[in-house]
Amino acid sequence: MLKIESPQNATYKKLLSLTTAKGLKKEKLFLLSGEKLIKEFLKKPNLKIVYEIVAPRLKPLTHGDIAQLSPALFDEIDVLGTGFNILVLQQPEIEKLGDLSGYKPKGIELVLPVGDPGNLGALLRSAEAFAVPRVILTQEAAHPFLPKSVKASAGSVLRMKLARGPSLKEFPDDCIALDMEGTPIDEFKWPAHGLLVVGEEGAGFSARSKPFKRRVSIPTQGVQSLNVVVAASIALARRA
Predict the structure, then answer these.
(1) Phi-psi sector, 152: left (phi>0), alpha (psi -120 to 50), beta
(2) What predicted TM-score, i.e. pTM, was given to this entire model?
(3) What are the two backbone dihedrals, phi and then psi, of residue 233, each rounded to the nearest 5 degrees?
């Protein structure tokens, strides 16, 4: 067991960096927090466990490398305030997509330029619930393995097939966009295959110089727009 009490410890700095997008990109690891998520993962682990992080009062759940942090250091890494053991896992491979002009989606795939990690995680949960074959994250999207995103996904991020695409402005014009100016969803004819693009809340599709050719809207009463997670979930449910 590795005991760490100094914030200057190199291993501690590495672990702490996993609470940031920069650290996640560099280390290719991520933190799994929350008693329910961890116990579910340990029933059928599908990713390599690099470390288990504990505080002095916590008993290890695994038999691998254990990092015991002082209470103060543990609280710094436990950004979600779970008070429970934390697993450090190897990130699954995320395919990188370049030019999408000739890309052929398998079914209706979801494109997310969402920068808020909580919304991103919740969208990944909906994507799994409605059997989306793949989620493509644009360059504008948050890192899917930020602690808040992992928690909001309720573990879906561990199982979904993910890819990282280019900037939203580089996606082909024939994508299907959720847009208030589009065809009402009850009248929209879904193709067998396509890319469904969800706009970032507030910014919408401002990264593009022209609108997507195919647009679908969700009519509402009394409110101007829906939360991006709600809107995408409705669209996926109707498409399913």
Answers:
(1) alpha
(2) 0.91
(3) -65, -40
